[in-house]
Amino acid sequence: MRQTEHVVNLDRMPPDVRDRLQESYEPAEGNGDWLEPNTIHCGDARSLIPRIGPNSVALSVWSPPYFVGKEYERNLSFRDWQELLRKVIQLHFRIITPGGFLVINIADILCFKDEAMPRVSADVISRKKCPVTRDDVLKVLESHPGLDRRHIAAQLHCSEQTVDRRLNGNNIRGGKYETQTRVKIVGGLVEQWAERAGFYPYDRRIWVKDAAWENSRWASLSYRSVDEFEYLYFFWKPGVTKYDRSRLNRDEWRDWGSRGVWHFPSVRSNDDHEAKFPIELPLRTMRLLTDPGDLVLDPFLGSGTTAVAAVRSGRHYIGIEFCEKYVTLSERKVREERTKHADRSLWPE
Hints:
The protein has helices at 15-25, 45-48, 78-95, 134-143, 149-156, 160-168, 187-197, 250-257, 280-289, 305-313, 324-340; strands at 39-42, 57-62, 96-106, 109-113, 181-184, 200-208, 229-236, 261-263, 295-298, 316-321. The protein is α/β, with parallel strands linked by helices.
């Protein structure tokens, strides 16, 4: 498949919209040496997105770093993180087809350090501090190498959050003498960056996943809730949007196509990547918003889930991933998915 620019019928747009967007829909200058579809490209999304053909991507669906201390984002300051997302969103406007969508899966930052927040100790009445120490966790790992967080928590009769705190310092809300933490609402930032780029908020969905501590004896020492949902923000590029009820069957429209809340479990075993989303997330989004043969982008491909979903649903894809080891992982998963469907053609000519 060669990338081609989407044919834009400006005459179908209101005159004020047509005049305002005329320039962005004009063919881009250059030699047309665009990124090859159905390929995973290694590099920074900010450098590679400009190499995607203008008005060619029907849907970009992705989950960026959440700024929660994962290994692949440890070098990012909060300002760096904001600039990364702002720039990637800005670069999308040129490449999304008129009437197409940018869908961002993201969660609020639940433990955002705030120097200005007062250091006031809570008066905890009903529970004592969890006695599990880092040494306790290390002893379990020494006896049972390779045990995952859920099973370590079961061994120690504590929460998975406690295990993660003891091992990695993640999710630390701070104590009396530490920087206090609060929730940072991310949706307003994403909305602001998308609107500045030229997109319009079209929809938002909530993905309800299984709670991270569902199978443990975890209970909060505060009134803060368990982390058990994330957001999907749908942004629309002005243009004629195709609305086709035949993309889903009747039950699918009833159960999730027209529902603002999606229920499906998270990935319980992040054995090959720190933060994987389930294939159901990009698969539903593709089937709802695109047709077979359309081009889908994921500029933070990670373990390759979006590319696998594209192969499974008969869409073309472009994947961008910064870490070389994850490019290798994604390519392997795509090859395995293609092998499953080798006996039939998924993509229309």
